[in-house]
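Usage

Read records sequentially. Each one opens with the input sequence:
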Amino acid sequence: MHCPYCQHTDTRVIDSRVSEDGATIRRRRECEACGERFSTLETVELKLPAIVKGDGRREAFDARKLRTGFDRALQKRPVSEEQIEAAVRAVVHSVRMSGERELPSRRIGEFVMDELRKLDHVGYVRFASVYRSFQDVADFREEIEKLERDLPADNGQLPLLQGGEVVPIDRHGGKGERHKKR
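and closes with the structure output:
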C-alpha cells in the first residue's frame, strides 16, 4: 500500500479491526518513510454474474438497484431497515451461489419475490404487479389468491382477501368501513 502523503511504497499495519457485520476490516497503517498514519478498509470483492435483460442487453449486477426495488415495494410498510438489508443480502447470496456467469433478470426477480413473500404480502403484490405487468384487477386478485393458498394460515400478516372480496384496511392497520359513494 502506497502512503497517501509521500507515496512511499512501504507501509505497515499497526492495528486491524473487523466491522460489526464482518463484511469489512479496518486497518490502521503507518508509513515507514514519513511516519504518517492513515486507515484503509478491506472488503471482499466477488465477481457476480452479468444480468441479461429481457431485450438481450447485458449489464453488471447492481445491489443498489436491488435495494431500490425493495424500498419501492415496501414503501410505508411495517418492515424494518434490518429486515430489508437481510433480504437484499439473501438475494445477493442467491445470485452468487447460482454459479452462473450470466443470469436472466427474470431469475433475479424470482429471488426478490421469494424474499418479499416472506417479509410482507402487500410489498410482494406491489412488486409482482410491476414485475409481471398486471393488466387489470383480475391479475391482482389471482396473485393474491395464489399467495394465500400457498402460505400457512398463521404467518403473522393480515389476510389480503376475505370471502373473495378485498378486505378494506384503514390507515391505522385495522379493518375499516368502506367509503360510501354520495
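Summary fields computed downstream for this record:
- The CA atoms of residues 74 and 80 lie 10 Å apart.
- Residues 11-43 form one domain.
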